């Protein structure tokens, strides 16, 4: 029968350490000594050690009496050992056996003993110091070869007692009983069982490209395949001396067959209801919490000016143009009446005509209105004011409106929130990892986790071929991503270690290097020159909103270059029209003069003929 005290002390850690240390903080009579036949399947050895000047054995005698009464049919061996000063201690022992079993026994051997420790008040006391504590333990284990060794101590034990014992060859599991100081118990447990996990196995879903290798803190030492999760796990494994086993491709039966499991740890796990239930029941412990965002961007063409000739003729508001059209209609009527010699009944409209001509031409040619003022002292200031008003209207309003209409960039109207995005019926790509065949000039949206979306956005900006418009940050979908693990003795240490990595900036550095590597891998495909420029930028403090964006754009669809070309085209058209009119007038005048000359010649010939006819008649 295997004793039940293994369950009380092991915490599922028995298989992971070569020499695990068990600690009982309460008195032994409350744990197992008063249990009837607790050591029924064992063979007990009692070793009572005494120094040359101290015969106090109350603890070992109390344990002996209790176990003897509760385990009447268990084989028992008692040794009384007297230690003297020096490296080797002389001892004598008395032996008592009960129920001697014939042949080789298969019972579990359990040894109870006390340690002899003296205080060192001077250098002379060191000469009389008995055998060292770990040597006392090793002597007992070599003599009895137990499976479990229970030690009664009433002093603050030092960690090196156990460490020196563990460094020697012994299969016995050491159990310290009756430690009176809780701080000493905690310190001893942390020293032995949390600072060196003896190569235990930690389960995780993460996959390792370079298991056990520590990541560097610069681009030159940060491998292309390294990730923040892998680097963090490697640091943890080196700090506490344990290894990892990936459970992604393993079945539950295969996981159960793994020996020496000390826990489980996961990173970048969405905080869902199942995980919350594990935390509430105490099965899991959250190490860190981060907020992740699912964001979207709009990929569209770069903004362009109106670049339309209509801007020259339609720069003002509709109301002004309706009034202008009505005035032009009235002016046309006046001109028609004047051309046909009809009575002048439109003196008021003629004043409006002069006003509009002066307004549109930017010149004070409305002298007819000013001349109607009889007083010259009033007419001259009015003429100056009229000129200034016409100049301001023409130069600042009309010409300014034309220029702004032709040159001001009009950004595309895109949705800013998720509701507007859904209502727009725009194409939405739900991941940035998808590869689209061919190219498209259409506007579309990309939705993904922010850290993956940033890579795609930066890549488009580096190429400079499409415009990327980000949405309102307040409209992003946010969720909690946690790092958690199985709650056990090592969980507080892992939690504190991860918190320290975050506080001193190591995790932030790993995140930066991971993003930089992903960008570099993408930019390598864009050419060596672009790759070198981007590497230089990553290693400097230079910041720029748009990376390597050039003014030239091959996807502008041959749009017009600006308002000056329109002005030049309009002036050229006017000059060409004027030249045509000039040539037409010259040709018309030449034809007209030729006709008149021909007619004059014919008239002269007619006159000559008439004169000749008269002479003949006479």
Structural summary, described in words:
Its main location: membrane. Helix 5 (159-167) links the parallel strand 5 and strand 6. With 618 residues, this protein is an alpha/beta fold. The longest helix has 55 residues, at 563-617. It is rod-shaped, with a radius of gyration of 51 Å. Strands 7, 8, 9, 10, 13, 14, 15 and 16 form an eight-stranded mixed β-sheet that branches. Strands 1-6-5-4-2-3 form a six-stranded parallel β-sheet, sandwiched between helices. A two-stranded antiparallel ribbon has the order 11-12. It contains 20 helices and 16 strands. 45% of the residues lie in helices and 16% in strands. Among the domains are: 5-193, no CATH class; 304-410, no CATH class.
Q: Which class do the helix and strand fractions yield? A: alpha/beta
The largest β sheet comes out as:
8 strands, mixed
What fraction of residues sit in β-strands? 15-25%
Determine the mean pLDDT: 69
Low-pLDDT regions: 1-21, 87-94, 362-366, 544-560
The coarse silhouette is rod-shaped
What is the number of helical segments per DSSP (H or I, 4+ residues)? 20
Instruction: Please state the CA-atom Rg, rounded to the nearest Å.
Output: 51 Å
Query: What share of residues is helical?
Result: 40-55%
Alpha carbon gap, first and last residue: 176 Å
User: How many DSSP-defined strands?
Assistant: 16
Main location: membrane
Membrane topology: Multi-pass membrane protein
Signal peptide: 1-25
Transmembrane segments: 563-584
């Amino acid at each position: 029968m295997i004793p039940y005290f293994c369950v009380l002390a092991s915490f599922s850690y028995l298989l992971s350490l070569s020499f695990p240390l068990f600690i009982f903080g309460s008195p032994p009579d409350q744990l197992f000594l008063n249990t009837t036949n607790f050591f029924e399947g064992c063979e007990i050895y009692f070793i009572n050690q005494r120094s040359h000047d101290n015969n106090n054995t109350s603890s070992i005698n109390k344990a002996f009496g209790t176990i003897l009464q509760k385990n009447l049919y268990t084989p028992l061996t008692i040794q009384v050992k007297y230690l003297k000063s020096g490296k080797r201690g002389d001892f004598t022992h008395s032996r008592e056996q009960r129920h001697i079993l014939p042949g080789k026994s298969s019972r579990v051997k359990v040894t109870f003993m006390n340690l002899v420790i003296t205080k060192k008040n001077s250098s002379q006391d060191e000469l009389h110091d008995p055998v060292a504590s770990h040597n006392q333990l090793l002597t007992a284990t070599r003599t009895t070869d137990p499976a479990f060794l229970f030690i009664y101590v009433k002093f603050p034990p030092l960690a090196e007692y156990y460490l020196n014992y563990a460094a020697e060859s012994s299969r016995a599991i050491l159990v310290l009983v009756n430690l009176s100081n809780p701080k000493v118990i905690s310190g001893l447990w942390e020293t032995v069982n949390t600072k060196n996990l003896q190569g235990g196995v930690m389960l995780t879903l993460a996959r390792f490209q370079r298991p056990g290798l520590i990541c560097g803190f610069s681009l030159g030492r940060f491998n292309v395949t390294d990730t923040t999760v892998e680097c963090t796990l490697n640091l943890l494994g080196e700090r506490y001396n344990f290894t990892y086993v990936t459970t992604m491709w393993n079945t539950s039966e295969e996981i159960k067959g793994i020996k020496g499991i000390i826990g489980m740890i996961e990173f970048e796990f969405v905080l869902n209801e199942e995980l919350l239930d594990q935390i509430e029941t105490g099965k899991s412990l959250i190490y860190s919490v981060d907020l992740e965002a699912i964001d979207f961007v709009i990929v569209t063409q770069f903004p362009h000016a109106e670049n339309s000739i209509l801007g020259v003729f339609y720069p003002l508001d509709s109301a002004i143009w309706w009034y202008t059209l009505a005035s032009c209609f009235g002016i046309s009527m006046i001109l028609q009446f004047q051309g046909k010699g009809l009575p002048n009944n439109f003196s008021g409209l003629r004043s409006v005509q002069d006003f509009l001509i002066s307004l549109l031409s930017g010149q004070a040619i409305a002298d007819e209105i000013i001349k109607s003022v009889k007083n010259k002292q009033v007419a001259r200031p009015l003429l100056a004011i009229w000129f200034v008003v016409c100049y301001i209207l023409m130069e600042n309003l009309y010409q300014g409106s034309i220029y702004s209409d032709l040159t001001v960039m009009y950004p595309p109207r895109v949705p800013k929130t998720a509701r507007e995005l859904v209502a727009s019926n725009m194409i939405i790509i739900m991941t940035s990892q998808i590869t689209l065949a061919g190219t498209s000039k259409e506007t579309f949206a990309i939705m993904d986790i922010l850290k993956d979306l940033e890579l795609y956005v930066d890549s488009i900006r580096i190429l400079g071929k499409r415009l990327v418009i980000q949405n309102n940050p307040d409209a992003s979908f946010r969720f909690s991503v946690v790092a958690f693990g199985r709650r056990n003795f090592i969980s507080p240490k892992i939690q504190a270690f991860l918190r320290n990595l975050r506080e001193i900036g190591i995790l932030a550095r790993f995140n930066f290097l991971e993003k930089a590597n992903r960008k570099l891998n993408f930019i390598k495909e864009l050419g060596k020159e672009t790759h070198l420029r981007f590497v230089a930028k990553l290693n400097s403090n230079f910041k720029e909103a748009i990376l390597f964006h050039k003014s030239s754009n091959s996807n502008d669809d041959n749009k017009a270059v600006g308002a000056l070309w329109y002005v030049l085209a309009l002036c050229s058209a006017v000059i060409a029209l004027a030249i045509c009119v000039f040539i037409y007038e010259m040709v018309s005048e030449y034809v007209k003069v030729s006709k008149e000359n021909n007619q004059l010649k014919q008239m002269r010939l007619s006159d000559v003929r008439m004169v000749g006819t008269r002479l003949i008649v006479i």
